[in-house]
Amino acid sequence: MRTPPLRMAGTAVLALASSLALCACEREMRRFETPPDNRAAPRPEAPRTSALQPAEARSDPVRLPAGNGEGYEDNAYNVAQGKRLYRWFNCAGCHAQGGGGMGPALIDDQWRYGSEPAQVFSTIMQGRPNGMPSFGGHLSEDQVWQLTAYVRSMSGQLRKDTAPGRADALQANEPEAARDREPARPGAK
Amino acid sequence: MTAPRRELDVSALPSYAFGHRSLMWWGTFGLIAIEGTIFAIAIGAYLYLRSQADSWPLGAPPPDLLWGSANTLILLASIWPNQKAKRAAEARDLVRTRGWLLVCLLFALAFLVLRGFEFAALHTRWDHNAYGSVVWTLLGLHTVHLLTDTYDTAVLDVLLFTGPMEGQRFVDVSENALYWYFVVFSWLPIYAVIYGVPRLH
Amino acid sequence: MNDERAMQQQPGRTPAPPHLKDGPGPGSPEAAALDATWRDPPGLLGWLAAVNHKAIARRFIVTTFCFFVAGGLLAFVMRLQLARPGARLVGPDLYNQLFTMHGSTMMFLFAVPVMQAVAVYLLPLMLGTRSVAFPRLNAFAYWIFLFGGLMLYAVFALGAAPDVGWFSYVPLAGPDYSPGKRTDFWAQMITFTELSALLEAIVVITTVFKLRAPGMALNRIPLFAWAMLVTAFMVLFAMPAVMLASTTLITDRLVGTHFYNPAEGGDAVLWQHLFWFFGHPEVYLIFLPGLGFLSAIIPTFARRPIFGYTAMVLALIATAFLAFGLWVHHMFAVNLPELGKSFFTAASMLIAIPSAVQIFCWIATLCSGRLDFKTPLLFALGFFFILVLGGLTGIMLASVPLDLQVHDSYFVVAHLHYVLIGGAVFPLFGAFYYWYPKITGRLMSERLGRWNFWLFFVGFNVTFFPMHLLGLRGMPRRVYTYQAGLGWDTLNLVATLGSWIIALSALLFVVNALRSLRRGAPAGPNPWGAGTLEWATESPPPPCNFHAIPVVHGRDPLWEPPRAAADGGPPPFTHVGGLAAHTRELLATTVLDARPDLRVNFPDPTIWPLVSALAVTVLFIGSIFTPWAVVWGSIPIAIALTAWFWPRRAETAVHLRLEQGP
Amino acid sequence: MMDALHDVLAPFGPQAGHVRGLWTLTLAVCTVVFAAVLAALLVALLRAQRAGAESAPDLSSLGRPEPGRRRSVIAAVAASTLLLLALIAASIFTDRALARLSTDGALRLEVTAHQWWWEVRYVEPQVADSFMTANEIHVPTGRPVIVTLKADDVIHSFWVPSLAGKKDLIPGRTATLNFRADRDGIYRGQCAEFCGSQHALMAFFVLAEPPERYAAWAAAQRRTAGEPAEGQPLRGREIFMRSSCAMCHAIDGTSAQAVRGPNLTHLASRGTLAAGSLANTPEDLRRWIADPQQVKPGSYMPATRLSSEDMDALVGYLQTLR
């Protein structure tokens, strides 16, 4: 006697499940093969100086990448990889845990060179005048996209269910997943 | 030879009773065993983390005694109305049961309000360090029990005022009081750990 | 509550005239009234509202068995991957999900719940009563278990299954190394299933203590009931540890607590202590009910009462106590004080003694009995071979030096499967063949049963015995592949072949179970000539289990019927009478010697346990994504629980008519 | 690939030897017990009569006790208890023996486990004499070794079956493991605690050599990488420095000093690549650099796509790092 509501409930559940399926899949997938378009050619023109300063910023005009980092920001694994690379390549050396230091703060999203994934990507790839080194050629493109995703998570620009939780380290500030987009913090260079 | 059918007539037996004769008592006993174990293990975790740390508490002064102690007193005092309610229930005196249950409820609410101040007086947050995490967990666990038992008492009292009445309700009141005693007495070791252990040297 | 009214109007629910009291046996109008009273309401809604222990237990058993099959298939895929070195059938990510799902399924969704499910079906029948205590709580426990298990498999289908092992060691399972929600789903699955197990423990304890038939003093209850009682008490004290552990893990991951962050004063080893304080008793939670099955099967097919009843009971209790004193033997490779380790070595070895006592008592029973070689007995005998072998390798693992060599190697994989499959699954299959006729009214095919047993026995040993050698040759656990030329190839291939045999035998079992539903020979009340009370009523039992609750005069009531006193004194009571037939009224007896104590009103079927379970599910799953779910999620729960406990005026009126103060 | 020993039952040092002894004893006892129990069961099954379900149960045991049976059960339980006590004693004595391994003039190592490789640091009194390597531990035969165990990320476990039992490496804690290799040989070890995607391919090797061979090897390891010859090797180093390699790896004597991946100063002197996943041949090295995910899915080494002559140059340079 109660079939119509049941059928409705059924369809609702189905719809919910399928939408869940989509987000869950892209959120949780771990692609272990290297993307075919992944270029990491060495950079003959710029000699490497040190691990912290792989190369001076490039003077040639900024080239934005084709894509906008699709498949990286909505994937928890890639964001986590980005967090690891942020630690490995000592980004904290200048940007601290996002609070900023020698380099600008990253926990607000008011960025001099734009906060779009593509802009962050080219900032990392090509470097910026007065400090930000160019990692192009020293990092493979998927690594840079992973870093980009993580850097954006630091200012709460990512979905909460892909942004990282706390690290197994001393806590500078709250976990990325707990952050909301903040307005620019005055004084942060 | 096997005996002829002979019936054991139980129709005259009581249909409810207090204490361990009632099924409710055993249900409550089970809950108390579970919750007690959880508290014990949480305290164990606290002491374990302390044993791993060079200094304790980590990066915070010991919590202020004021609110915690005040709460302990209120909680101990709340035994009295509970005992009254239990007695009244076991005497099947509906009016006095209602009344005393109401008093218990007031105690519980007062306690919950103070509990808020208690959290503030911990001087740490769950996400500061392991000490903060475990203290908040201990206090949080106990608060959850308070909340549930308070809600339970409230529902029961509303039922006594409005709902259909039968003897079994008195048993429920009596078991509710039993559970409240557990909430009270489980607090004492937790109080000792949260407020005492950080002051040990 | 319009659904309540809908139920009141169902044909099955027309209340019988209140004057009817039970007592007259089957066939009487009272009997018909009792059946009408205790039957679950018809219709879909009635099905969802069911509280009859047999209905819930049947669903529970079927559900756990489905999880068993699912977990088995996962293991089968793992064996295929490991058949050859360097195979690429599944990659590391999927493999890690497979073995995590396999372990979690078998431990949390099969082994413990299936025992409780069988107990929920059998205990009231064995103890001579009409329901488990707290039937609505029992229904709630089933629903919550079902939803927890479904959640885990849903996320597996979505490629978001946990992948850090059923033990989820931090920091690998922590926020820094397990991104995404995979581990959170695992942690909440724990919360679901352990909540269910804890509630079932309360149900079992209360049922065994308060709802026994008159005369069934504690020293007369069937050993299976003893085993379940001891198990239930172990659950009360073991499960909270893992619930606390999974909660702290999820708060570390979601709200940034630092229980397991060494940099902020946390400690990864704390997790291991919490987990294994639960995890080792867990093994005995699975093992003790298995012993209970054997103690039910062996006397029946040896045609004599069990030898050494008291020793058996004491052995069960001793096992329970010792089980809490040996969790550290899972952590010998962690640098802990050596002296402590020696203590845990001793405890881990001495726990073999209670098991030995029971094994010897069973052998004594068998050798002085007259044997009836039916399939259940075959599985019981299979237990002796496999469990004893597994127990002996367990003694090896209890020794620190040996453990440091074989710990976390395939030797342990072999050991734990010998213990768990030998100690739990073989008795469980035996129990299934033994009680299937009681549950369905038909016997399973003996021929298929023997094939089922021998294939399982052979396949099991072919699969798992080589793993001992693999471990000794240095093959670690939880590897998704291995390189050629390490001397592991052949043994792995053999193990995989064995897994095919097991799969075949499991298939035969399913076929047998399904075929016998229709084609099985009618069983009658007591096909095995057994002595315990569940065989006193017809098969399948009527909704009220017993039309007249029997009075018990011995440990095997059907073998020791009441006898007229020789000196011409008053004849002994044979059955109980005087319980209302038009409402769910039950006899409660005293804890120790089961003297009649109370007439207890039992609640009617209701939809609210299901609704509450759904509300709890919303909270648990919501809290994976936002901590605030704990706040807003608790409101529907409060509402549902209140509606659950709120008495209906109609019911109360009925109760009042029967009320009698203490 | 190096064919190496990794068998609990084939010990090549005192530690594994003690355990082997205990194993033999325990196995003997357990076999006897197992046989005895099965024999008893078999006797029971053969002696007992047969009967069907319809036959009346034998209730005689209710009336009178069964002293004979009780005695045999008690005897059996007593016997098993004694055997267990004996095994406990044996286990504890073996423990003592393991602890008694003399560590005079021991070689000191520091092993740090990473996902999914082993960093090995030889700690010498003079800092200058200390040196780093990865996934390959050379030890002098007959000299005790004290290994300090640390973990960089998650829990791992250090296990060389032929030499000693395992020990966990836990972040935030340190542990030590002592062993001694009494015979020359190559002993395989592998991570025994599940540690993520590549737990399966996280092997290492212990090479026990005569003291003089060890000394020569250590001396070679202490040398920094020399200037590569003009042409291909030199170009290879340029590529190394300018591609992603230098972001994670160190080559002593060059500006590459990163510590995220294995130290490559003497890469060519090692038997395997990627924690025992590949033989250290030019072809496999190429494969590994070009696409690590093909060899070790989930490993943290990024693919480096180079033109084939660049790759030749790079591999050529790495081959010179002996």
Short description:
The complex is a heterotetramer of chains A (189), B (201), C (662) and D (322). With 201 residues, chain B is an all-alpha fold.
Give an overview of the whole structure:
Chain B: This is Putative cytochrome c oxidase subunit I. Chain B: The chain crosses the membrane at residues 23-49, 61-80, 100-117, 178-197. Chain B: Residues 1-199 form the Heme-copper oxidase subunit III family profile domain. Chain B: Belongs to the cytochrome c oxidase subunit 3 family. The complex is a heterotetramer of chains A (189), B (201), C (662) and D (322). Chain B has helices at 23-52, 65-77, 79-90, 94-120, 130-162, 167-196; one strand at 7-9. By secondary structure, chain B is mostly helical. Chain B has a single domain (35-199), classed as Four Helix Bundle (Hemerythrin (Met), subunit A), CATH 1.20.120. In chain B, helix 1 packs parallel to helix 6 (167-196), helix 2 packs antiparallel against helix 6 (167-196) and helix 3 (79-90) runs antiparallel to helix 4. The radius of gyration of chain B is 21 Å and the shape is elongated. By secondary structure, chain C is an all-alpha fold. The longest helix of chain C is centred in the first third of the chain and has 36 residues, at 92-127. The radius of gyration of chain C is 25 Å and the shape is globular. Residues 1-13 of chain C have low confidence and may be disordered. Chain D has a five-stranded mixed β-sheet with strand order 4-3-2-6-9. In chain D, strands 5-11-10 form a three-stranded mixed β-sheet, with helices on one face. In chain D, strand 2 and strand 3 (117-122) form a beta hairpin. Chain D is elongated and about 100 Å long. Chain D starts with 13 loop residues before the first helix and ends with a helix. Chains in contact: A-B, A-C, A-D, B-C, C-D. At the C-D interface, helix 5, helix 9, helix 11, helix 12 and strand 1 of C face helix 1, strand 1, helix 3 and strand 8 of D.
Strand content of chain A: under 5%
Mean pLDDT of chain A: 77
Roughly what fraction of the amino acids of chain D lie in strands?
A: 15-25%
Most extensive chain contact? C-D, 94 and 91 residues
Label the CATH architecture of the domain at 107-222 in chain D. Answer: Sandwich
CATH level 4 superfamily of the domain at 107-222 in chain D:
Cupredoxins -  blue copper proteins
Q: What's the overall geometry of chain A?
A: globular
SS summary, helix count of chain D: 9
Q: Write down the Rg of chain D.
A: 28 Å
Text of the CATH class of the domain at 67-167 in chain A: Mainly Alpha
Question: SSE order of chain A, as H and E?
Answer: HHHHH
